[in-house]
C-alpha cells in the first residue's frame, strides 16, 4: 500500500497556486495540505472532501519563524509578483527572490522530500531584463544549495487566465498574442507557448517523488 504524502504550499491564492491547491486536495496520494498565506483562504472556492486543508496565516517577512511547517514530503512555492505590482525593484526582489530562497533554506533544514518553485521561461542570471535576471539568480542560488534533494524549477511562459483583483492588461494581451503564434512555436520554440495555470500546477506535481 502506498504511503500517503504531506504537502506545503506557499502562494496558494495566486493563479497557479489556486489550481495547484485544487489538484492536491483531490489527489488521493496526499493526506494533508498546509497553506501558508497572507490572509485567510476562501474555503468556499475549494473542494476538500477529505478535510486535508490546513491554512495558516503568516507574516512572510518573518518566514523563518514558521520553519516547523516545512517538515513535509513536498514543498510547492508559487510565490511571485510583478515589478508593476511590487512598486519598485527592491520590493519585487523581496518576493521573487528572498521569500523563495528562504523557503528553500527552510525546506532543506526540515529535510523536506522535494522543493519545486515557479521560475520563468528565459530565466538567466546574466539577462539584461531585470525580471528574468532575478529569476535566473534564484535558480542558481537554489540549485547550488547543498543537501536539498529533488529541487526543481518550473519555467512557464505567459499565463492564460483571469486574476482576481489583479489588473495586468499587458499580460493578457501578451497571452492572446502567444495563443495566435502557438502554431509557429514548435521544436525549440515550444517552451515559449502561453500556458494555462493548471498545466503549470500539474508540471510542478510531476517533479515530486511519490
Automatic annotation (TrEMBL):
Annotated GO CC locations: membrane
Keywords: Membrane
Presence of the UniProt keyword Calcium in the record: no
Intracellular or extracellular location(s): Membrane
This protein's record includes keyword Zinc-finger: no
Residue ranges constituting the NAD-dependent epimerase/dehydratase domain according to the UniProt record: 7-124
Principal location class: membrane
Protein name, as recorded: Epimerase
Organism: Alteromonas alba
